[in-house]
Amino acid sequence: MGERARKALRLDKILFIPTNIPPHKARPSAGAKDRLSMARLAAQDLPRWEISDMELRRRGKTYTKDTIRQLKKIYPNDELYWIVGSDAITSMPWAWKGGYDILDECQFVVAHRPGYSLHRVKKSVLKKILVLERTFKRDVSSTMIRSVIQLKKNPARFLDSRVLTYIKKKKLYETSA
């Protein structure tokens, strides 16, 4: 999703930011250090990708609003884009801290995900987002990958080989959280 957005929008780089403790989900089943390591492995061959630990350095739950404001201080002269799947934007603004206000902080870019129609998104939100053309042939999510691993099936077609090796070595996701 990120690389597709980078190419479509001709972005200089993608800053991938693993979250510390997401406010809307249970605690991640892999620890922060493991998720950061996997992100770094996945981005090794993507020269325009940078992995940031800015949210992991914060204590407690992390909010998009706070991260965007921090990024605006770090990159004051750059145009910022926040890339999410349509599954994430369907809960905007009521489930997001800062609600509508964060839509004015930077440009939100939404990639379609099967099963998450943008018809459910408020019109006031739709007016403020960019929607990428549909190009996904199949839906791949972290939830789906964890399920495949827990079922003792092979997730190789969904993951970078280095990430899969890391997951196996650390025995991540083998049991449900």
Automatic annotation (TrEMBL):
Pathway: Cofactor biosynthesis; NAD(+) biosynthesis; deamido-NAD(+) from nicotinate D-ribonucleotide: step 1/1. Keywords: ATP-binding, NAD, Nucleotide-binding, Nucleotidyltransferase, Pyridine nucleotide biosynthesis, Transferase. Gene3D superfamilies: HUPs. Pfam families: CTP_transf_like. GO terms for biological process: NAD+ biosynthetic process. GO terms for molecular function: ATP binding; nicotinate-nucleotide adenylyltransferase activity. It catalyses: nicotinate beta-D-ribonucleotide + ATP + H(+) = deamido-NAD(+) + diphosphate. It is an enzyme of class 2 (transferase). Residues 3-147 form the Cytidyltransferase-like domain. InterPro entries: Cyt_trans-like (IPR004821), NadD/NMNAT (IPR005248), Rossmann-like_a/b/a_fold (IPR014729). The keyword Transferase applies. Its EC number is 2.7.7.18. Catalyzes the reversible adenylation of nicotinate mononucleotide (NaMN) to nicotinic acid adenine dinucleotide (NaAD). NCBIfam families: nicotinate (nicotinamide) nucleotide adenylyltransferase (TIGR00482). This is nicotinate-nucleotide adenylyltransferase.
